[in-house]
């Protein structure tokens, strides 16, 4: 029986044209060979499985080819090419630096460099994983790498360029290999499947390419694994089952539930995902990617960023039209926060479930009781709107004639009866005297007009308003009064409602210091010196937890900070959501520890703690720069 060869080795590229996803690099190398402009040292760096060592071998074979083709490829027919293909060439030496990283190994390599080639023009030394060489081995290699014999070419390959000494980097031409795109990987896998007579769905190959994460070797290894599992019939369902990949269907189902505010369905779907053995972090990461794909599917210009199969692409486009950009932005932010907090959370399942509940309420117009399932809250329109609507024509006629008005003293307590059906609540104005007057029934608010008074099961009182601010007509009191006062009431009622709902947040000294520095950073360029001074200040909270003080060096700085205090207070009140924040400035005491700003001040403070520094300065005649 013939020995089986894995696809990663069987379909390894033999020419520059067969290298996948590195067109720019292969073109550069072919042009260098054609123009006889070869460097003595190359560094190929990039992720694993993208073709670094493969390109090094093709390059070594091509420069030694006796009869290269017109487009700069090796002929694969001359003695040098046949020796290379049969792995018996003495002109190409490969060294694995991961296991041969000592000084002796490099010295042995340097001794071989002196021997000229027997066939061909060059001897090529390929050192793989060169970042694994020891410090002493790098130093021993430096001189030879800089001035090798004319027949020697070094090709260094590594996945971690940052670990290589700068002195090595400066002696090499550096080629950065890119991750292979999903489309290029899928195309290559389709060619391999055709040659192996394997049936494969495009969606299945797309999942394999995404799982490979830009590495062709990983993609071919996964491909062989799935072929063995499916016995030559690769389907999307078999791939996600074998690779333990979460199906797209779950994410489409969840997104529909989010848009319809169905919290229970979201939790049940997540429970089903957990029962199948998937990790919560893997689930939330996939959900974030799903929202990202929906976002790029909304715009035809960004549709090219969607790396999925053709059939699933149409589903993404259809669902993306249901989602607003604001929903997708907030959803990605919530999922990303959940991903960041997942590792440190002690109740990981609850963290994900809370995120799902928040996602299911993003599209709700108002806060909904029962976790996003149920009717929205009914809210009342501002007072006097009904009277204004019913008497618009009459009020317009009355404006044509001058009318006398008189001031009504006393206070009006306005109450809202909540026992009526939605849109028919009774609004009653009660004077401070025993006489009572009933206003017309309130109708539903016009479209687009907010209702600041929510419906509840108990009777609520609106903030007391003075009737002295209302002008009442003598001729048509019952109709003119609501029409004249509607604008005032409509303007004042929401403001008072917001003031009652406003809550001052609690903050600590760390939050205060953060936004203090933020204010200092926003100062204009001409205030750079004052901004630096503020950066060195440390605000301290006092006992009432809303007032803080700043200690300054002198009266001049105190005067400046006092003038700046209103702007600082306004900034902090807005950022910390607390209207009671107040700032005080004082000059520091003589014995108070002041932060040193200049080098001289720092030296003086250090010398007070350690007098030996002064002796050292005087003994050696040192001066501060």
CATH architecture of the largest domain: 3-Layer(aba) Sandwich
Task: Please give the largest β-sheet.
Answer: 5 strands, parallel
**What is the fold-level CATH name, i.e. the topology of the largest domain?**
Rossmann fold
What fraction of the residues are assigned to beta strands by DSSP?
5-15%
Tell me the name of the CATH class of the largest domain. Alpha Beta
> Overall mean pLDDT score?
77
Strand order of the largest sheet: 2-3-4-1-5
Question: Your description of this structure?
Answer:
This protein is α/β, with parallel strands linked by helices and 625 residues long. The protein folds into five domains: 7-176, Rossmann fold (3-Layer(aba) Sandwich), CATH 3.40.50; 182-242, Orthogonal Bundle (Helicase, Ruva Protein, domain 3), CATH 1.10.8.60; 248-360, Up-down Bundle (Zinc Finger, Delta Prime, domain 3); 382-501, no CATH class; 509-587, 2-Layer Sandwich (GMP Synthetase, Chain A, domain 3). The chain is 47% helix and 12% strand. The protein has 25 helices and 19 strands. It has a five-stranded parallel sheet, covered by helices on one side. Strands 10, 11, 12, 14 and 15 form a five-stranded antiparallel sheet that branches. A hairpin with an 8-residue loop joins strand 10 (411-417) and strand 11. Helix 5 (103-113) runs parallel beside helix 6 (135-146), helix 9 (202-212) runs parallel beside helix 11 and helix 13 (263-275) runs antiparallel to helix 17 (348-360). The longest helix has 25 residues, at 477-501. The protein starts with 6 loop residues before the first helix and ends in a 5-residue tail after the last helix.
């Amino acid at each position: 029986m013939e020995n089986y060869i894995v696809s990663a080795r069987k379909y390894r590229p033999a020419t520059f044209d067969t290298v996948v996803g590195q067109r720019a690099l292969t073109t550069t190398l072919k042009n260098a060979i054609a123009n006889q402009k070869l460097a003595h040292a190359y560094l190929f760096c990039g992720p694993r499985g993208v073709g670094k060592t493969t390109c090094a071998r093709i390059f070594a074979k091509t420069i030694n080819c006796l009869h290269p083709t017109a487009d700069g490829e090796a002929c694969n027919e001359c003695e040098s090419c046949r020796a290379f293909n049969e792995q018996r060439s003495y002109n190409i030496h490969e060294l694995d630096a991961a296991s041969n990283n000592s000084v002796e190994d490099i010295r042995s390599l340097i001794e071989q460099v002196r021997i000229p080639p027997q066939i061909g023009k060059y001897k090529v030394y390929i050192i793989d994983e060169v970042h694994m060489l020891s410090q002493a081995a790098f130093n021993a290699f430096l001189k030879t790498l800089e001035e090798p014999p004319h027949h020697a070419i070094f090709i260094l390959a590594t996945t971690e360029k940052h670990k290589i000494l700068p002195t090595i980097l400066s002696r090499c031409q550096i080629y950065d290999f890119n991750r292979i795109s999903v489309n290029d990987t899928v195309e290559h896998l389709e060619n391999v499947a055709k040659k192996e007579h394997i049936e494969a769905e495009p969606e299945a190959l797309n999942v394999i390419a995404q799982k490979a994460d830009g590495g062709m070797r990983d993609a071919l290894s996964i491909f062989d694994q799935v072929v063995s599992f499916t016995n030559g019939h690769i389907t999307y369902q078999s791939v996600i089952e074998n690779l333990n990949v979460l199906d797209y269907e779950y994410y489409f189902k969840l997104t529909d539930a989010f848009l319809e505010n169905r919290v229970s369905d979201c939790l049940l779907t997540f429970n089903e995902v957990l029962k199948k053995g998937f990790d919560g972090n893997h689930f939330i990461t996939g959900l974030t990617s799903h929202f990202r794909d929906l976002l790029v599917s909304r715009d035809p210009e960004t549709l090219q960023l969607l790396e999925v199969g053709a059939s699933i692409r149409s589903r993404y486009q259809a669902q993306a039209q249901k989602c607003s950009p604001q929903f997708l932005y907030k959803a990605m932010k919530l999922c990303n926060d959940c991903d960041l907090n997942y590792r440190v959370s002690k109740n990981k399942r609850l963290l994900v479930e809370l995120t799902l509940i928040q996602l299911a309420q993003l599209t709700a117009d108002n806060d909904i009781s029962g976790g996003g399932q149920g009717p929205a809250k009914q809210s009342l329109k501002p007072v006097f709107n009904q009277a204004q609507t019913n008497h618009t024509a009459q009020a317009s006629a009355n404006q044509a004639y001058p009318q006398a008005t008189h001031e009504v003293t006393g206070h009006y307590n306005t109450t809202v009866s909540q026992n009526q059906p939605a849109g028919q609540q009774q609004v009653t104005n009660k004077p401070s005297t025993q006489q009572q007057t009933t206003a017309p029934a309130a109708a539903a608010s016009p479209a687009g007009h907010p209702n600041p008074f929510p419906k509840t099961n108990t009777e609520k009182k609106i903030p007391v308003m003075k009737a002295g601010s209302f002008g009442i007509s003598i001729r048509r009191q019952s109709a003119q009064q609501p029409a004249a006062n509607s604008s005032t009431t409509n303007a004042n009622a929401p403001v008072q409602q917001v003031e009652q709902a406003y809550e001052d947040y609690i903050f600590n000294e760390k939050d205060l210091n953060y936004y203090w520095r933020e204010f200092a950073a926003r100062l204009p360029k001409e205030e750079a010196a004052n901004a630096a001074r503020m950066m060195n200040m440390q605000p301290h909270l006092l006992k009432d937890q809303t007032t803080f003080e700043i200690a300054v060096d002198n009266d001049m700085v105190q005067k400046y900070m006092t003038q700046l205090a209103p702007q600082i207070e306004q900034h902090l009140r807005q950022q910390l959501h607390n209207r009671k924040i107040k700032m005080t400035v004082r000059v520091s005491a003589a014995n108070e520890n002041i932060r040193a700003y200049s080098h001289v001040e720092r030296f003086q403070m250090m010398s007070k703690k350690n007098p030996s520094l002064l002796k050292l300065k005087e003994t050696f005649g040192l001066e501060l720069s």
